[in-house]
Amino acid sequence: MSTPNRVYIARLAGVAVFDPNGDQVGRVRDAVARMRPNQRPPEVVGLVAEMPMRRRIFLSINRITSIDPDAVVLGSGTLNLRRFSKRPNELLVLAELLDRRVQLEDGPSGSVVDVAMECGRTGEWTLTRVAVREQTGRLTRRGHLHQVEWDRVRGLGGVGDSRGTANLLAVLEDMRPADLANALQDLPDARRNEVAAALDDERLADVLSELPERDQVEILAALDRERAADVLEEMDPDDAADLLNELPPPEQDVLLDLMEPDEADPVRQLLRYASGTAGSVMTSEPVILPPDATVAEALARIREPQLSPAVAAQVFVARSPLTTPTGRYLGMVHFQRLLREPPADLLGGVVVNDIDPLRPTSPLPEITRRMATYDLVAMPVVDRNNRLVGAVTVDDVLDHSLPRDWRNRDAMPAPATPSQETLDRDHG
């Protein structure tokens, strides 16, 4: 195996995994070690890689031909796509050891910031060294970093009673919200809630929107109510409404009362619509501009980074007021049309209104048919007075058309045919 003799695992997080042909098949997310008796250092049996569609699979250490800071390369053979599931005698190194509070033999206490694996003469990889940051008791000073042998650290064998989150968050910080949500599902519930609570409000709001409903509710319930209300304020109103719909009405009312009125009002409005209708799946904050706004102003508005691609794909034009429910709805302009028009032209001169808007009571099958018929990524929703009350985007339609548990990775089918890699893990 053409690879360094010692590899620090936290530095592998996010590194691309390539097959023998040079095609990327995923990214490293963790390492799997098998616990052994008599305090022997755990044997590293493989890596966990994240594939497209957020599927995590096991890569046997015997299949890996090289490891370096930029790439992990696999040898020939069939890749087993069965979803990874940790076994009772196994340890996920990053998820379970980073930030663990430990005691150095004849030395100070501290927290784990990295773990090294080494390849011995027989080709067996084991966890051999631990990087531990000494606790100083002072907020403004970082403690000394110790790199010591595995058997000189006390507190690695059992479940840690007290762990921080800083080092694990550092590993996860560059992940997209959907990938971070996927990583949280691999953690024990208590650890998942601890890590989620350490995220800032905006980041946690983004991650919650990507989690299954059960996990959303459990994480929200683990927060104090004031913090939970702050996180709900950071979510898009439609996502916040979907989450609150999973809670009992009394709890909904408590959280809505704790939110700022201007953040709670659109969520309350969405909660009034029947499930499975345009009103229940729409966003109440599309891009809305008056007819006397210029094309240049519209382009500047849709460039705002917080807008999702589906919301930024078009501008809705309405009379004042411009917050939903607006004044009279006039039509919409797709961003491609904006790119073709002179920047000084007014939106009122390029607006399109040849497609009938949806009503809040329009059922989901009708919305799907109409969006597919006209190749739209969003459709306006107007009330009986022709006031714009929101817009249904294609991601809203997909989210509510798929099974309720589609975000739950355990509910997704996986190939069940064993490969040599499975046999290696079972009997290696």
UniProtKB/TrEMBL annotation:
Residues 282-350, 351-411 form the CBS domain. Coiled coil: none annotated. InterPro entries: CBS_dom (IPR000644), CBS_dom_sf (IPR046342), Mg_transptr_MgtE_intracell_dom (IPR006668), MgtE_N_sf (IPR038076), MgtE_transporter (IPR006669), SH3_actinomycetes (IPR058838). It comes from Micromonospora eburnea. Pfam families: CBS (PF00571), MgtE_N (PF03448), SH3_actinomycetes (PF26205). The lineage of its organism: Bacteria, Bacillati, Actinomycetota, Actinomycetes, Micromonosporales. Keywords: CBS domain. This is Mg/Co/Ni transporter MgtE (Contains CBS domain). GO terms for molecular function: magnesium ion transmembrane transporter activity. PANTHER family: MAGNESIUM TRANSPORTER MGTE (PTHR43773:SF1). GO terms for cellular component: membrane. Residues 405-428 are annotated as: Disordered.
